[in-house]
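Module 6 notes. Inverse folding takes a fixed backbone as the condition and produces residue identities as the prediction. Think of it as a translation problem where the source language is geometry and the target language is the twenty amino acids. Below is one complete input and output pair. Work through it position by position during the lab.
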């Protein structure tokens, strides 16, 4: 078993006219905290979006928890235990702040969002 919880090997990703990632390596041991640092446009978000299944890599390999890791979308990533807090938040403007915070984790009743309960719980007493 590898000593790493996450390995991103030789990850490359190009967009039209720009090579965002060129054989990038990232190795993370359990319990470690890493900072990805680089100027704007260095490719930090692109690397994390590949991990989240938002972008597909052009080449390279990801190993998570000792197994090949291929996710098609953020739901699959989250089901595997990978989560991302986005730098650029995209709130849904038609929804209240609390609704944005709880997107995807709403309190439901019989499979429907229980708006009354959600609102009661969010109103400061
Ligand atoms: N969806 C996209 N379409 C085209 N180019 C993109 C896209 N996302 C990122 N890029 C480009 O890829 C490069 C890396 O961007 P990004 O990963 O956002 O960098 P960072 O997060 O380090 O600032 C930049 O040149 C950026 O313009
Ligand atoms: Mg970024």
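Target side of the pair, the amino acids:
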């Amino acid at each position: 078993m590898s000593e790493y919880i996450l390995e991103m090997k030789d990850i490359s990703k190009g967009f039209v006219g720009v090579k965002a990632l060129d054989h990038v390596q990232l190795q993370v041991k359990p319990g470690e905290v890493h900072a990805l640092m680089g100027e704007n446009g260095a490719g930090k978000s692109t690397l994390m979006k590949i991990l989240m299944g938002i972008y597909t890599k052009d080449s390279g390999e990801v190993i998570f928890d000792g197994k090949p890791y291929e996710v098609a979308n953020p739901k699959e990533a989250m089901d595997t235990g990978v989560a991302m807090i986005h730098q650029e938040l995209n709130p849904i403007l038609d929804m209240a702040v609390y609704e944005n915070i709880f997107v995807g984790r709403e309190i439901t009743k019989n499979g429907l969002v229980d708006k009354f309960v959600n609102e009661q719980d969010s109103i400061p007493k």
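Reference fact for the lab report: The chain has two domains: 6-80, 91-125.
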